[in-house]
Amino acid sequence: MRDRLQTAETVADSDDFIDHETVSVSVLVVGAGAAGARAAIALADAGVEPLVIGKSDHGDAHTTWAAGGINAALGSLDPEDDWTVHAADTLDEGHYINDPEAVELTAKHMPDRIRELADWGMPFDRTEDGKINQRYFGAQSFRRTCFVGDRTGEAMLDTLVAKARDMDIPYRDNVMVTRLLTDGERVAGAMGFDMESGEFVLFRSDHVVLAAGGSSALYERHSSREDENNADGPALALGAGARLMDIEFVQFHPTGMVGARYGEEWDGRLVTEAVRGEGGRLINADGERFMEKYSPDQMELDARDVVARAIAQEIREGRGTDNGGVYLDISHRDDQYITDRLPSMYERFQSLGVDITEEPMEVAPTAHYSMGGVDIDFATGETGVPGLYAVGETVAGVHGANRLGGNSLAETVAIGKLVGEHVAEVVDDPAPPVTDSQRALAQREFHALADLADSDGQVTARELLADLGDILWEHAGILRDEASLREGLAELDALRARTADLSIDGDRTSRDFEFAVDLSFSLPIAEAMLRGALERTESRGAHYRTDYPDTDGDWRRNIVVSEEPTGLDLRTRGVAEPSPEVQDAVDTGYELDYHHLE
Ligand code: MEZ
Fold first, then answer.
1. Which atom of ligand 1 has the smallest separation from the CA of 270?
2. Which are the contacts of 389, defined by CB distance < 8 A and separation ≥ 6?
3. What is the reported pTM?
4. Ligand 1: centre distance to CA 438 (Å)
5. When you count CB atoms within 10 A of the terminal residue's CB, does the N or C end of the chain come out lower?
6. In the prediction, which pLDDT does 227 show?
7. Active site residue 276
8. What is the average per-residue pLDDT within 50-68?
C-alpha cells in the first residue's frame, strides 16, 4: 500500500515520466455537494472563477440524501424562536464541546440563507399564508426545520447547481483526488485521476477548499452510497498537515432501513427523521412504545444519540423484530398528510411492497454523520495550512458531540458562503504556473498510484473495507469500552498488514482501484476514531463508553489529531465560551415539548 507521508525532500527523480493532464486554476473546490457549491457561488459572486470537482455526475452529490429539512430560526409558526435559541439548542445537544463561534455564525446566518435559497427558486413547503413552513425535528425547542417534503437536500442541491450554472461556474465530474499537493509548508493544488479515463490529473492552485464529506461510510451499516463519506476529506487534510478534531464522535441515525427485511442493498439507508417529526412512533416487537421509558418528555423526538441508544438497547435485550430492528409507525396520520409530507418515504416503501399509510417500517440505527473532521477557523475556513480551507461535513466544530437533524444542510450554506467570501479576498494569481518541484511531487504520486493499480496480491480493497466496517461497527459503535476499543486497534493493525497483499488488475477505471484509494483514506481516520474513543474516558453525546457512563466536566475538551512522522498524535484542547446573548438563551433552558405534536 502506498505510503501516505510524502514531502518534497523525499521525491525521487524518476526516469519514467508519467503523462498527465495539468489544470491550473485560481481556486480549486474539492467536492460538489452543497458546501462546495455554496462556497463556489460566493467566489463567483466576488469575481473569482473557481473550479469545482466531484467524484460523481454533476448535481448528484451526497447532499441529495439529506431528506427531512434544514434549520433556520425563521419563527414562521413559533415566533418565540430566534437565532440565539437555535444556537443554544445546538450547543446543548452538542454537549458543549461545539465551537461556539461556528454555532453562532451558522444560527445567525441561516434565516438569510433560507430566504436566499427561496429567492433562487428552492420550492420550500409553505404555510397557508405563504410563509416558509417549518416542522418539528429532534431536540429542537421550536418548529425550525424548513423542508421540501422529504426531498429537501435534493431540492437544495438542484437550486445551488442551477445557480452555479447561471453564473457559469465550471464543474468537472468523476474525478478522484488522491492527495493534496504540498511542499510541507503550503498547499499548492491536488493530484488525482479521471475516474472515466483513468488519466492522472495535476490540479495546480494556491487555494484549495476541501468540501469532500465525512467518514461515516467507514462503518458496516451506514446511510451513504458506497462512494460517499469514505473519509477522503479529513484524510486529505490530515495528509497535508492539517489537524482533525473530535473524530471519535460519529452520529448513528436512529432509523436506517433493515436489510434483512428489505434487501441488503437497502441496509442502513435513511428513513428520514421527518417521519418522527411528523408524529412517527417507535414500537418494539412486544408492541410497546418504548421511548416512554427512555424519554417520557421528548419521546421519539429526543436527540438522535438518545433514540439510537434506546433502539439498540431494545434490540440487544431481545425486544427487537426477527429481522433485527424495531417498528416505526406513521400510519395513524391521514393518508394524504403522509403522502404530502413524506412522499419519498411513501414511494420508496411502496416500491418494496410496504404501504406506510397502513403498516409500520422496520428500522435500526445506521452510521450517518461525522461530527468530527478538520479543525478550522469558521470565519475563514482556514485550516492552519496556508492555502488549504475546508467546509461542510469535512470539518468539525458546529455539532460538538451530537448533531441536530437539519443542522448539516444549514452548516453547508451558512459557512460555505463565508468561506467562499474569505477565499475570494485572498486570491491573487488566477492560474499559477507549475514549478519543477511541484511537477516532481506529482510524478511521485502518479507513480505510487500506478504501482497501486498494478498490485497483484490476493485480497481486494472491497474485502478489506468490509472488514474495516465490521471492526468499527463492533468496536467503535453505539456502545464502546476500553477492552473492545483496544481489540479494535489490534484488528486494525492486522488489517493494515493485509494491505500489502492487495489485488487490482491494473485498471484505473475499475471500482477496485477506487476502493483501494478509499482504503488509504480510511485507515488513518479509523485509527483516529478508535484512539480518540479510547482516550475520551467519559460519555458525551454520541460517544457512549459503558465503562465511563457519565459525562465528566473535565472532559469538556476537544481531542485534536495531527499526523507526525511517528504516527498520529492526539492532544486535548479547551473549548471557548458562547457569547453572552447565546449564554442567556442556554440559561433560559428552552426545550421541545413533544406533546405539542399530539
Ligand atoms: O440532517 C439530517 O441528517 C437529516 C435532515 C436527515 C433526515 O433524517 O432527514
1. 8
2. 207, 208, 209, 210, 376, 380, 381, 382, 383, 419, 422, 423
3. 0.96
4. 41
5. C
6. 85
7. yes
8. 89
